[in-house]
Amino acid sequence: MFRRVIVWTGHMGAAAGAFYRAAMEPNAEARPLAGRTALVTGAAGGIGRACAVRLGAAGARVHVVDRAGEAAEKVAAEVGGVAHVVDLADPGAADALPSDADIVVNNAGLQHVAPLHEFPPDTFALMQRVMVEAPFRILRRTLPHMYRRGWGRVVNISSVHGLRASPYKSAYVTAKHALEGLSKVTALEGAPHGVTSNCVSPGYVATPLVTGQIAAQAEAHGIPEDQVVGQVLLARSAIKHLVAPDEVAEAVLWLCGPHSGHITGASLPLDGGWTAQ
Ligand SMILES: NC(=O)c1ccc[n+]([C@@H]2O[C@H](COP(=O)([O-])OP(=O)(O)OC[C@H]3O[C@@H](n4cnc5c(N)ncnc54)[C@H](O)[C@@H]3O)[C@@H](O)[C@H]2O)c1
């Protein structure tokens, strides 16, 4: 049964024709990513897992990339995808990953909270390797495939900290600002090849990355742990509750879907109004 009435005009090219024929296939709306392959880093838990589940449900074949092997295998089994157990701090890790991804979600990340003058240099370097160098190396590996197919979607999970700074997060704020820059360059170079690149930039999301920093935030700010969420994490958010991982995954899916092809080089803040201030 036809879902839409299509008025064909002589101005429509072959690519538009293929798109409209695909849109009329049964399930095209429910599974808009059928036939696509997605690679999601840090997909064993938190936001990455939510993205893997959502992209898989939309029809994509998902490469689940994480250093946490058992959890990655579990997510891969859940989404019918393939687990790749690698440590993205290793500069050679990207070479072990598939190069034929149509969608890349650079999500893996970590946090460390400490005043700049006490921040461990090794931790600073590690965070740049995982959150900046690994995305660069993965894009360097996968963009040629996207260019050959004339279609690709890059979504970088940045943060409100890619747009704003907070004290005690020198490595994280540095890395996320760099990721925003990498994403914009990818957008400019990818545009002639049908590849878009965007950042999704959430405020605080209810994941282990957040619960894991509460003690350190309490110490750095000199307040009790039970006051950290209200007084520190949500202090600049107009909406006073944490973002859910599924909300981030829906934004990622939308950026990979058929109605967002003109959005590129952008940063989509899911920050409860933080950057409106
Ligand atoms: N949780 C938040 O409040 C929040 C807000 C904004 C942005 N983000 C970003 O979202 C992304 C995901 O965060 P999350 O909250 O889901 O974190 P999380 O700690 O729940 O999950 C991160 C995942 O990345 C994996 N990972 C970490 N280092 C890795 C490495 N070296 N190699 C391979 N895998 C590695 C972990 O094993 C884990 O599965 C991060 O980039 C983070 O900066 C999170």
TrEMBL record:
InterPro entries: NAD(P)-bd_dom_sf (IPR036291), Sc_DH/Rdtase_CS (IPR020904), SDR (IPR050259), SDR_fam (IPR002347). One of its GO terms (biological process) is monocarboxylic acid metabolic process. One of its GO terms (molecular function) is 3-hydroxybutyrate dehydrogenase activity. Gene3D superfamilies: NAD(P)-binding Rossmann-like Domain (3.40.50.720). Signal peptide: none annotated. Its EC number is 1.1.1.30. The keyword Oxidoreductase applies. It holds the Pfam family adh_short_C2. Keywords: Oxidoreductase. Transmembrane segments: none annotated. Belongs to the short-chain dehydrogenases/reductases (SDR) family. This is D-beta-hydroxybutyrate dehydrogenase.
